[in-house]
Amino acid sequence: MHTCAIMQPTYLPWSGYFSLIKSVDVFIFLDDVQFNRSSWQSSNQILSENKVTKIKVPTIKMPLKTNISEITLDNSSGWQADHFNLIKNSYIGKPGFNYLMPILEDVLLNTRFKKLINLNIKLISIFSELLEKKTTFKLASSLNVSGKRSEHVANLCKSVGSKHYISPIGAAQYLKEDNFENTYDIKLLFHKFNHIEYSQNSSEKFYSHLSIIDSIANLGQTNVHNYLNNYEIVTSNEL
Prior knowledge:
The protein has ten helices and eight strands. With 239 residues, it is an alpha/beta fold. The chain is globular and about 50 Å long. The two termini are 21 Å apart.
């Protein structure tokens, strides 16, 4: 079974994003859709001093309908050092700290990216090495397919030779509305990530859906890939 998943390239995405990558043969970065300044495309959350804290990458203001692939970073503010130091101070002494920080130092402090997509995909690619599975990455913009919503998804799947589409549960409603499976003759499955609680700083409460940074820092390099195995692939009837 040749499986495919499609997601927008987001900044330091949550653990479920990487678990989805782990579950498929081909992962397509949906970079040919409109950029949304308030989305996870340019931001995420970590736990700092037992508070959920947002980290946001500044971008140059561009026309409303600009695709993600064209968004330019605003590197004038020194945000890279701010993000690096906040993460460092938030997770110092944690099991994954010594693995995590050299990577972030190299990407955030020693490299200057011009475009948001290059930054996001670089970080996603590096942390995907923890998955212990070879998943092929593709850019939607390079596949040059047409269509809106479900039609676009179906055309992307077909372009990489996949008849099994594994979707995040969050897209279930619109795929159902579009009658995806019957319309496009592609098997529709859903990735259900079981966000099992782990020890998280000194907080008594567990905060889910934070950046993969939180999972790596608290679990350590050797345990993260097992944590990301906590998922099920289900049909729409099993949701």
